[in-house]
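Per your request, structure below.
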């Protein structure tokens, strides 16, 4: 069994923002010549997630609205007070982003069968920005033969 690790770099614009990275992951699978195995897609950030869902604009807007209701950006978060009191790196108040991330998660695993991602008809892999726009990294690890 072979293991390969790659990094996808993404520039986000805002949070929440859903960025479809399915084609980029599929390209890495194809280039790696993995016939059967699986791929793990992992966000290296605690304020950005990786999720599988349908790429329907209305659905994605519904999910963005849900995230804002569950952990509103203007809510009161202890993290925001702590980050500003003890941090001098210019961090913005983002307690809501950390809470939203906890609900969504950092990674997805997708089977690879006959060299193809085994996704359902409407399933797409999304990088989900939950904070403000910035440069981000997604780790893609392929295991298989």
């Amino acid at each position: 069994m072979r293991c390969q690790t790659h990094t996808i770099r993404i520039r986000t614009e805002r949070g929440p923002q859903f960025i479809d990275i399915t084609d980029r992951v599929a390209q890495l699978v194809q280039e790696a010549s993995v016939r059967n195995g699986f791929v793990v897609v992992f966000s290296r950030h605690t304020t950005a997630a990786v999720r599988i869902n349908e790429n329907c604009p209305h659905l994605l807007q519904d999910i963005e609205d849900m995230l804002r209701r569950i952990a509103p950006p203007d809510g009161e978060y202890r993290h925001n007070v702590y980050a500003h009191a003890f941090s001098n790196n210019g961090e913005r108040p983002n307690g809501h982003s950390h809470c939203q991330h906890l609900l969504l998660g950092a990674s997805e695993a997708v089977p690879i069968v006959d060299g193809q991602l085994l996704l359902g008809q409407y399933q797409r892999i999304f990088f989900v920005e939950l904070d403000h726009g910035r440069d981000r990294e997604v780790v893609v690890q392929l295991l298989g033969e």
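The chain has one domain: 2-144.

Regards,
D.
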